[in-house]
Amino acid sequence: MKEAKRKDWDTYFMDIAYMVSTRSRCPRRHVGAVLVQGKKLLGTAYNGAPMGVPDCSEAGCMIAEEIEMIEHDGKQEMVKKQRCVRTIHAEQNLLLFTDRIDREGSSVYVTDEPCWTCANMLANSGVTEIVYHRPYPKDSDKVKEMMKQKGIIFRGLDSYEPPRETVMVVSD
Prior knowledge:
Structural class: alpha/beta
Strand order of the largest sheet: 2-1-5-6-7
Order of helices and strands: HEEHEEHHEHEHE
Largest sheet: 5 strands, mixed
Helix content: 25-40%
Shape: globular
Number of helices: 6
Organism: Paenibacillus azoreducens
GO molecular function, one term: zinc ion binding
Cofactor: Zn(2+)
Distance between the termini: 47 Å
Domain CMP/dCMP-type deaminase: 8-154
Active site: 91 (proton donor)
């Protein structure tokens, strides 16, 4: 009998992050995150409204618009960004529901590249590695630069394929 090929650790933990993301009720984006120390899973979280509060599927998205100045081809440009502020992001929930001591030297696997706010929080959380799958271009350049400054390993899994039952259409 031929032995089935085992998944590598990155695929294993990212699969778990995607499965966790299926708990989200956000119509715009399902995000899951897992905290890993070595090969030990320490916590999971997904994006959603605070417990006991109506979520986006019940009360609608709460969209806030932001204007940011960015440099593009040597010129300053104003860029408008829309963000839902009803939900707590998966990375934020992961930090809320795990202990600092467990995060020291750990890795976070997250379905989506962290936004600027989550990246700031993760940078101070004690983690030493962040692994993501889907890019988040709105904040990508400045997040990558900060992670480089902090010495946090920050890598995308470009060739990763999420489990079919976890895939949703993502809107920006």
